[in-house]
Structures are given as C-alpha cells and as structure tokens.
Structure to design on (630 residues):
C-alpha cells in the first residue's frame, strides 16, 4: 500500500471513530447527549493536535526520535508552577489573574524553561541522547516531588482545585475552556504552517541548516516558544500525558514514510486524536469508568516505550 | 577524613532525632524508667530512630548489591522497578486476602519484588546496552510500567488514594508494635557484609566469576533476594524512599574507593546519616507537622543524583 493510501486510511479511521464516539448509544438526543460529546471530542482534537505538534517539532530540533517535551519535564514544571501560584496567592489567584492571566503567566514561565533546556541541550551532551533522557526523567521526578510537597502545605479546598489540574480528564472539559484553547492552538498552528520549510531544513541539523541559509537560533527559538504554548494548553486541558508523544511521533514517521513536516505533522495529529478517542471509548464502554484515560495511556505507551528502548539497544 | 570520625556527627544526629518532637520530654523524669517521658521515648522516639537507621543502612546496601550485579553505577531499587513491584505485590495481597496481616503482605511484596528484579537483571544482561545511562533509563521505564499496572489495578478496586498514602515514605506512623518487621534488615546488612567479596567478583562478569569458582546464577539470585527482603520490609513499614541507594554508594565510591570490605560499613553509616538528616529536616520544616521523608529524601537525593550525572558527563 502506498504511503498516501495509508494516510487516507488513517483519516478515514479517525473520522469513523469520531462519528461513532458521538453517535453510538446517544439515542439521537440532540438536546443534551450529543452536545456534551461534541465538547469532549473537541477537547480530544485540541489535545491531540498539541501533543502531535510538540512531539514532532521537539524531536526535529533535538535531532532524535526519543525525547519529547513531556519527558524533558515541560508538564512537570507546568504543574509545579500551578501549585506554587496557589501556594503564594491562594485561591484568589484564580480570581485575581483570571483564566487569561494564569495562562499568560504559565506560558511566559514555560518559555523560560524552554529556552533553558534548549541552551543546555545544545551546549552539553547533544550527542548523548540517553543522558538527556535520564536527566529529563530525574528532573521530572524531582519537580513532581516538589509539587507534592506544596500540595502538603496548602489547605484542602485549594488542594482539590489543584487536583483538578493534575488529573484533568475529558469528562470535565467545559465549553468556554475548549473555545479558549482552540483559539490559542489555531494561532500556534498557523505560525507553524508558515514555517514548515524551515522545519524541514532544521531537521538536517545545525550545520546543514546554517549553510542552507536558515537563521538558526531565531528559528529554533520561535519553534520552542510555540512548543511552550502548546504544552501549556494540552496540560491544562488533559493533564500530563508522559510517554504518549513518543508513540504518536514514531507511528506517524512509520505511516508517513517521509521526513517532510507537511506530511508528518498532520499524520501525527490523526494518530494522537485516534489514540485519545480509542482510549476514551474503552474507558466509557469496555471498562465502564473503572479506569481512566491517563492510566490506560500511561500503561500502553509505557510498554511501547520500554520495547522501543530494548529493541534499539542504544542506537536510535 | 577517617571514617571513624564520622561516628561523632552520626551520634549527634541520633541524639537530635531522639529529642525532637511535639511532646516535651523532660530528661530528669526519664531516669525513673516509668511515666510519661519514658513511655514517649520507648514507644515512639526509639522505634523511630531504630527504623531510620536500619532503613537508611539497608537501602544503601541494596544499592551497592544491585550496582555490583548489574555492573552499573546508577541502579537502585527505585531505578530497577523494585519499589514499584513491591507496591504491586501489596496491592494484590490487599485484594486477594484482605484479612491477612502484615506478614502475608510482606511475603507478597517480597515475591513480586524478587521476580521483578530477576526479570530486570535478565533483560539488562541479555541486551548489551551501548550506553551506560540507558540501563537506569530502562529501569525507570520498567518501573513506570509496573506502576501503571498497579494504578490500573488500584483504580479498579478503589484503592488509589490509600495506595498513594501508604507508598509515600513516612516515619511518623512508627510506634512500638507496628514496626518490628524492619529488624529483618539487620541480618541482611550483616549478610551483605559477609558476602561482600562474592558481590565484587560478580561485578567482574559471568565468565570471570565462574573461572574464579563462584557460581554466578546462585550468587546473583542471593543478592537479589537480599535486596527484595530489604525493600519489601521498608515498603511495608515506612513506604517508598527513592534515591538513597543510588546517592550514597556513588558518593562513598567518589571519596573512599571501591573496596567493598572496607567501604560497606561507611555506606551503611552514610545511608543511615542521610535518612536521619532528611527526617530531622522534614520534622522541622513545618513544625509541629511533618513533611514525609519520601519527599525530603526524594528532593535531596534527586538533586544530588542530577549533580553527580552532570559532573560525570559534562
């Protein structure tokens, strides 16, 4: 089968999944059931796009197929920041800053973290992927422990708000939040699509990119900024997804059979959305809410990632 | 500095740990060997001190054994799936035999931990990884898979919240009568010291070990069994404490070399001292409440681990 036919098949499958998700067992209740499901579907699409874009772009910049923003601690620092905000300002922070203020502050912080990681990634040990991987994993663990520590200090009421950030799920998605996120993601994606050729060149590595006339540092910084925005959106919408980005990116490379971002990015989006819908479907119908999407995804993607590590034996 | 000199600050830490607490203990009253002060010390402070010292020494020793068997500096119960397997074992015992006591839970945790470690060592030995840091990465991934299985299981049985409660290392629950399992660590520490030479030989690889007349498989299994007993006893009584087994042996190797016969007592001493210091810090930070030691040790150990990694590779 040609790569194009494969991709068309993927989109058909995703479409069928989406239609099935919205309509199956809904009794055609257009007043309540279907609008609720559409909101959930929209949340999944937005989160899927975020995860697909951030993972593929990050792997392009880092020059390997294993590191993703989630592994390098982007999600952990977002959650740590939310906890710190509630600790320092109390629940008034939500009123004081509003949704917009909070999002803006988080994005600024993520930008800082993004540039820090980049600075570090490109100066030391760029050639040692596994060292970076280990550093990322340990850093995430330490930040998660700090977050836990802050949770210990805040009052139970504030804790329950924070818990909402940590274990967000599609079932809780609200319309205003979804619209808000959709606008942000659409803007970020528009910028990415204007720079697609630059991304293709960046994938060749720093020296090649420079000799082909790409203004290297500003381009990379722009992409990292976009990653920061998208990770903030996806974490606020669905919570941490850990290893999902790796599996999504690798499946999309296999399906696309080309390194062009014009092809790999949409394919990755399709894969991510499909994974989310299947997981949500399993949770709702097969497991009857005795498990959660994040647990399922962590289980499956963790196994895949372990298998990937063992299979490649240290030559990615 | 000679290691013996470290006994003095260690003694001071022990004394500090004994005197610290919300309940005032008047030392003059203590000499009557009865009454309130005596009860506080014997029922709560001393058990806590003993548990801290034993856990610290035991976890540090576990790190050494695992590092010798796997031949990698960055392996310890938290980076080889041992802790997560013990967690899964306790969960299974809670659902299979909810009425059974802590002995049954201990046996389940022990079995799961041992099997998981054997599988991990088999994977690592079968696949000759090119990169040194890949070994702990695979271990962390392996642990997170086991942990995801445990979470899946716990969510189904509505145990998620209680699991998070008892997995976080915490010494505040330790009182006379519920911590005695921890004394199992004492023979483990002695046995490890006794077998130190064998573990050193194991670290030279299977070929060298068998040509020196050491049965590789049997000794590796023995080592993993010692680790499993120690980890499960710790998890049952206090919960998970990450990174102690990694940080302490690395720091000791940095300053005192690798002669296990000589360095094992230092490793045990440093491990106990590290836990004591973390515990005292946790008790003071939000006095009169406590920060669980899983957090203080996790933060301090994690940061030290990062520093060791960066110093070694950049």
């Amino acid at each position: 089968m040609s790569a194009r036919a494969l991709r068309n098949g993927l989109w058909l499958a995703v479409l069928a999944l989406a239609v099935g998700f919205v309509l199956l067992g809904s009794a055609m209740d257009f007043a309540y059931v279907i609008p609720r499901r559409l909101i959930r579907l929209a949340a999944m699409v937005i989160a899927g796009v975020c995860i697909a874009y951030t993972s593929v772009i990050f792997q392009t910049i880092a020059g390997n197929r294993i590191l993703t923003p989630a592994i390098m601690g982007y999600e952990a620092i977002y959650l740590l920041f939310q906890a710190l905000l509630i600790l320092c300002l109390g629940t008034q922070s939500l009123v004081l800053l509003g949704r917009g203020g909070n999002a803006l502050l988080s994005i600024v912080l993520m930008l800082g973290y993004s540039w820090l990681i980049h600075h570090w990634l490109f100066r030391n040990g760029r050639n040692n992927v596994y060292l970076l991987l280990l550093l990322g994993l340990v850093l995430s663990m330490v930040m998660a422990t700090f977050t836990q520590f802050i949770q210990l200090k805040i009052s139970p009421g504030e804790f329950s708000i924070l818990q909402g950030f940590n274990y967000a799920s599609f079932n809780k998605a609200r319309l205003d939040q979804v619209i808000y996120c959709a606008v942000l993601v659409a803007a970020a994606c528009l910028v990415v699509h204007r720079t697609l050729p630059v991304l293709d060149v960046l994938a060749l590595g720093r020296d090649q990119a420079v000799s082909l006339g790409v203004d290297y540092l500003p381009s990379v910084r722009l992409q990292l900024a976009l990653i920061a925005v998208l990770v903030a959106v996806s974490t606020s919408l669905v919570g941490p997804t850990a290893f999902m980005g790796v599996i999504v990116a690798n499946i999309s490379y296999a399906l696309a059979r080309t390194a062009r971002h014009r092809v790999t990015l949409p394919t990755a989006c399709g894969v991510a959305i499909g994974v989310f819908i299947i997981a949500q479907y399993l949770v709702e119908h097969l497991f009857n809410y005795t498990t959660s999407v994040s647990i399922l995804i962590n289980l499956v993607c963790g196994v895949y990632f372990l298998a990937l590590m063992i299979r490649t034996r240290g030559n990615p | 500095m000679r290691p013996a000199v470290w006994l003095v600050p260690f003694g001071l830490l022990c004394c500090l740990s004994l005197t610290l607490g919300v309940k005032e203990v008047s030392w003059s009253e203590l000499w009557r060997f009865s009454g309130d002060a005596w009860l506080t010390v014997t029922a709560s402070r001393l058990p806590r001190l003993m548990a801290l010292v034993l856990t610290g020494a035991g976890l540090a020793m576990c790190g050494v054994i695992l590092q010798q068997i796997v031949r990698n500096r960055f392996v310890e119960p938290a980076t080889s799936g041992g802790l997560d397997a013990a967690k899964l074992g306790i969960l299974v015992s809670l659902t299979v035999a909810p009425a059974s006591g802590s002995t049954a839970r201990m046996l389940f945790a022990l079995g799961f931990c041992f099997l998981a470690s054997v599988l991990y060592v088999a994977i690592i030995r079968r696949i000759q990884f090119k990169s040194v840091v890949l070994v702990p990465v695979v271990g962390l991934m392996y642990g997170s898979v086991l942990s995801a299985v445990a979470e899946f299981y716990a969510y189904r049985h509505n145990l998620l919240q209680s699991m998070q409660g008892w997995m976080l290392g915490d010494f505040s629950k330790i009182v006379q009568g519920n911590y005695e399992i921890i004394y199992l660590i004492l023979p483990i520490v002695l046995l490890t010291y006794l077998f130190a030479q064998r573990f050193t030989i194991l670290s030279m690889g299977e070929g060298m070990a068998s040509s020196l007349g050491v049965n590789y498989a049997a000794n590796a299994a023995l080592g993993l069994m010692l680790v499993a007993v120690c980890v499960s006893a710790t998890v049952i009584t206090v919960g998970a404490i990450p990174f102690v087994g990694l940080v302490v042996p690395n720091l000791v190797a940095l300053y005192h070399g690798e002669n296990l016969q000589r360095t094992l007592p230092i490793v045990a001493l440093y491990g106990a001292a590290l836990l004591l210091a973390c515990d005292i810090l946790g008790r003071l930070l939000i006095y009169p409440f406590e920060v669980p030691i899983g957090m203080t040790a996790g933060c301090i150990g994690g940061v030290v681990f990062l520093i060791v990694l960066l110093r070694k590779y950049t």
